[in-house]
Design goal:
- The protein folds into two domains: 63 residues, Roll (Ubiquitin-like (UB roll)), CATH 3.10.20; 40 residues, no CATH class.
- Helix 2 runs antiparallel to helix 3.
- 28% of the residues lie in helices and 30% in strands.
- It is built from three helices and seven strands; from the N terminus they run αβββαββαββ.
- The structure holds zinc ion.
- The site of zinc ion has 8 residues, from loops.
Length: 114
C-alpha cells in the first residue's frame, strides 16, 4: 500500500474526510448496505457516501452470506439439525457454543435469531 493511501485511510478513521467529488467536509454516518448498517461518511452537499475501510470488509462478508445455500436436515434423537453455512457464521462472527433463538416464522420459514 502506498504512503499516500495509508495517509488517506488514517484521515478516514480520524474523521477528517473531504468529499472526493466536491471537497466539502464529510460527516460520519451509518450507511445501509442491503440491510446492514455500517460506519461511513456522507457529504451533506452532494450526498457522496463512503464506507470506512473496516466496515467495507464487514459489508462484503455480509453480502456473501446473503446468498441462499441449501443445507440438509438431519435427525438426532428427537431433534432435527441443520448446519449454518460458514459464510453466515463469518459474517455474524458466531462463536462456538453461543446461544440462538429458533422460531417458526410461517408455514415454510424457520428463523434463527442470535
Ligand atoms: Zn460532496
Amino acid at each position: 500500500m502506498s504512503e499516500s493511501k495509508i495517509d488517506e485511510l488514517k484521515n478516514l478513521e480520524e474523521g477528517g474526510l473531504k468529499c472526493p467529488q466536491c471537497n466539502n467536509l464529510c460527516e460520519r454516518t451509518e450507511i445501509d448496505v442491503e440491510g446492514l448498517k455500517v460506519r461511513g461518511w456522507k457529504c451533506a452537499k452532494c450526498k457522496y457516501e463512503l464506507l470506512s475501510p473496516g466496515a467495507l470488509e464487514k459489508a462484503y462478508l455480509f453480502l456473501q452470506a446473503k446468498k441462499h445455500e441449501k443445507v440438509k436436515i438431519s435427525k438426532r434423537g428427537n431433534s432435527y439439525m441443520i448446519t449454518i453455512p460458514k459464510a453466515i457464521a463469518d459474517a455474524l462472527d458466531l462463536a462456538n457454543h453461543s446461544v440462538a433463538e429458533v422460531f417458526l416464522e410461517d408455514q415454510d420459514t424457520i428463523s434463527v435469531k442470535i
